[in-house]
Amino acid sequence: MKVSELITITKPLSPISESYRTLRTNIKFSSVDKDIKVIVVTSSGPGEGKSTTASNLAVVMAQTGNKTVIIDCDQRKPRLHKVFNLSNERGISDVLAKEIKFEDAIQDTGVKDLAIITSGTKPPNPAELLASGAMKEFLESLREKYDTIIIDTPPIVAVTDAQLLSRYADGCILVVASEQADRDAAMKARELLEKVDANMLGVVLNKVDGSHKGYYGAYYSYYAEEEEKK
By CB neighbour count within 10 A (0-12 exposed, 13-18 middle, 19+ buried), where does 141 fall? Predict the structure, then answer.
């Protein structure tokens, strides 16, 4: 596993890890009418830390005993197999194309109660594949097997994948990198999610420069430093 990206495992008592646990709690109490089981994580642009956020959120979800699965639906630039140091030979695209069974795509992350489905073979039509009835049926079947399903998607302003998948999700999280994300792009990302009636759970402000914030300055600076290593 990549030490810099799974800080909830390598430094579970750090302020950063605590922030992920706070995010977990906020999601849990974001709806009193229904469970938030399927969560889409996206960003406005590349390099804002959405895969890091999705991975650490999956870890803290699993740490409470929730049976969790994280799926890499970024078919263009998949990263989750690198985060968890696993093979990407077979994954979600192969399942949807009916090349393999679900059982052959699921992998153990080494974290108790956390499984992963990587992106798999790069398809020529990722948007069509993710918008297919097969994807909807697949997620419905996962709802019966897992307590929490986290989906890492491409940046929403660049391609439509996150919009398409948000229709099947109970909520969406938008990751925005401080002082990196273009303000107009961030606003556009939110508008695109609202256009498809996505349930916005919130925005994660990432890579905050906290050099003048004392104790928490160290936390923010560490996070920014670790992000730069990717």
Answer: exposed
**Residue 206: C-alpha distances to residues 23, 59, 142, 224 (Å):** 13, 18, 29, 8
Round to whole Å and give the CA distance between 124 and 17.
Answer: 37
Taking only the tens place, the pLDDT of each residue in 41-72 is 999 888 888 999 999 999 999 999 999 999 99
Token pair, residue 205, equals 């402000």
Residue from 85, 102, 84 nearest 93 by CA: 102
What residues does 172 pair with on adjacent strands?
A: 40, 200
The answer to whether 200 touches 191, Cβ cutoff 8 Å, is no
Token pair in block for residue 182: 């273009």
Query: Would you place residue 137 in the very low, low, confident or very high pLDDT band (cuts 50, 70, 90)?
Result: very high
Beta strand pairing status for 68-72 and 171-177?
Answer: unpaired
The DSSP result for 62-76, as a single string, is HTTT--EEEEE--SS
pTM of the model: 0.86
Strand partners, 117: 71, 106
- Radius of gyration from C-alpha coordinates of the chain: 17
Q: How far is CA 193 from the centre of its chain?
A: 15
